[in-house]
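Forwarding these from the shared drive since the link keeps breaking.
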Amino acid sequence: MLKFVSKRLFYGFSVLFGVVVVVFLLFNVLPGDPARMMLGQRADVSSIETINRDLGRDKPLTIQFLMYLNDLSPFSIHDPINSSSILFLTSEKYPSAVKLFSLTENKQLVLKYPYLRRSYQTKRKVSEIILEALPETFLLALVSIIFATIFGVLIGIVSAIKKGKFLDNFSLVLTVLGMSGPSFFIGIIIAWFFGYVLSDYTGLNMTGSLFTQDDYGNGEYLDLKNLILPSLTLGIRPLAVIVQLTRSSLLDVLTQDYIRTASAKGLNYYTVIFKHALKNALSPVVTAVSGWFAGLMAGAVFVEYIFGWKGIGKEIVDALEKYDLPVVMGSVLVVAIIFVLVNIIVDILYGLLDPRVRVQ
């Protein structure tokens, strides 16, 4: 089991390192000058050179990449810092670093939180921006996957029980449409229909986030109804997949010998379905739900932008419009880390539950 976990952790780390390399190269070879974006088109040359020097963009690309890795890594090489404490160091980049040991007279090895740098536009730390937006994306993905799982399993059971009948054929048509429809197109249709055409009946808005500004200037208040439309849009595709998986897996289990034995003993048909067959048919559904949850965290970009949901996806789109590279790079890395961690946890759980997975 230790070897199995070690391999999964190594694969996960390799994926994250590949993401870091791709993201860094992609956003550092794109045309454009962040310094000019920060200072405006009328900025003088000396000011632009000063900003680029502060950002490290005057150095070769290899050195820039090593500096970026040094900022991201929990173990970093840092200049000596004057501090009253022997262990704890403070600086603008590393506010709570722990000194491990001195490498040379001018360099120290420190343990610290990953530094995602600062926004070009707002000068705020990227980590602060992400921490503000991430909970709303997490809530949106969680509600979406709960909605998709509950209704997906129920519709899949009905479809399997009514195989070949109208309900089965109708659900199959809907699942095909759900899997084939792009989320941004479905989101626009749902926002227009439920948030505009039927807004007088539904009470829903086309756009809105978890917290809404009070009309009387008394701050923000929690507005959960704004969660309905984006979670519905984001949950349609996993709902369609879960319906198909539940149906096919349940139909396969119903052909097993122990199910026929249970039926031959005179057990009620629905007792056989829900007590014996469904328990074994949900294994692939659990795999799909865990994978889709990580995918929803990464795939909520267009949905959040359409509905004005202030999550990490909307932050990425806004930062791309402003060429705010640190925010984009930090957000992409955080989403990649979430995706990899969820998959590693799921693999380890399956390894613990099923020895055949470890052997394979």
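-- next protein --
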Amino acid sequence: MSTSSENGQKDAQTAMRTPAVVSKEAWETAHAQLLVQEKANTRARDALAAERRRMPWMAVEKSYTFEGPEGKLSLLDLFDGRRQLIVYRAFFEPGVFGWPEHACRGCSMVADQVAHLAHLNARDTTLVFLSRASQADIARLKERMGWTIPWFTLTDSFDTDFGVNEWHGTNVFFRNGDRVFRTYFLNNRGDEQMGGTWNYLDITPLGRQEVWEDSPAGYPQTPTYKWWNWHDSYEANAAPDKRWVEVSDAGEAAFRNKDGKEADKAP
């Protein structure tokens, strides 16, 4: 005998108005038409990232203290020697739904989507999470959920000062010697796109650091794709592998000269 829930699902499926079913040729035509808009969206996203790299910076003059597995750290310490720092404020503390077994469901989804950090590190970028939970609670949570993201404890007004005291959010900082600058901030639905290496790099002041990008003069840039590596094989200051250079050059030439014409990358 069907339950009311099953009947409700069947009614919803019956009422669902799906798109037309067409031939292979008609489907490819529709796809090609939509691809024009998707490529325009990709170009617009690249242009927006270029504008972001030209945003003014805000000097961070105040000192902040965090707790880590080894004790107290400053904001400068969170960079871990790199020039760029991305900081996500995750809600894991008393009063948060799920406490003490879990962090906020939304913040946990963000953590689940974070790509291997070796690729960000290879672009002189560090990603960390911050919460008000103790280091013991954070270590327990990370072990349960299988997360390896560096995760520190807030001890002062950092979250309030940088717009993430009442909601999640991502702040970006740049280190120039011992001086730290805030360069970008996003929250709300802006956090939905985070997790992938490319999207993280696109919100940093240096970007992906590849030669095709529109960046201010003097910004570090290397040949496109050449820095890519297996996450367990990055070596600081190592020259690109000759075989990978050949493979990536061939791949780039193939899509840029498809059918004898200059072709854009698919989105």
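The chain has a mean pLDDT of 92. The CA atoms of residues 3 and 9 lie 10 Å apart.

- D.
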